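Subject: mismatched residue count in predicted assembly?

I count 250 residues in my input, but I want to confirm that the predicted structure covers every chain. Input:
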Amino acid sequence: MAVKVMIPTPLRAFTDKKDAVILEGKTVGELLGRLTTQHAQLKKHLYADNGTLRNFVNVYVNNEDIRYLKYEETPVTENDVVSIIPSIAGGGTAI
Amino acid sequence: MRLVLKLESEFIDRIKEHGRDSYPEECCGFLFGSSDGKVKTVRDLHELLNSSGENRSRRYVIGPAEYRNAEIWAEGKGLEVLGLYHSHPDHPSRPSQFDIDHALPWWSYIIISVERGSPSVISSWVLNDDRSGFGEERIEEVKMREGTKKVVTDQ
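Triage response: the counts match. Full output below for your records.
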């Protein structure tokens, strides 16, 4: 089924400036898999080398963080909106 | 191709002031504006509270709710979230490894060095596409009143 995935501003450079893409999938993982297949340059920004989502990448199904659902196994339906929302962190040197 | 970030003098002053007022902790804030692919122009900035639960003199954290609010605000104004600024108290205005590990692509990351409470060097950085590090972006200071421009950082 087709589900809307919202793209944050800094990642739109890799989605032809689109703020949302419609993707087929039954779970969050399937949607993100298709997203990073269609827009391959996104993968290194969303996923760490070990294949897990980077710790500053938050994914919501509607208003629910998938960390409190079933992570990438979280099911989606065509009325859901999936949003990729970054946390932002930085700083001088190691604590 | 080297990118350019246009920044009015008033915004540079506000970033310096925020860095000074937050010392010895790090300050942070969003940059809003427009982009034509080569040049980003800052139209507004929002100061943020550093919500890091760790040592705020060495870390800043902006949560997803604040990011989402910033994006909604920007879209309502016809602007984009161009990036953010933060301070490095008693450290150079160069990105740390922690900055690289947590950076988003395309965004401008302005860093202001604050030495013993006094703002000093300001610079802007953009993450390399392969996440290997940052490239420095040229800040073009725009003095709106006189209608003149001055390059404040260039290499």
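Chain B has a mean pLDDT of 88. Marking this ticket as 'not a bug'.
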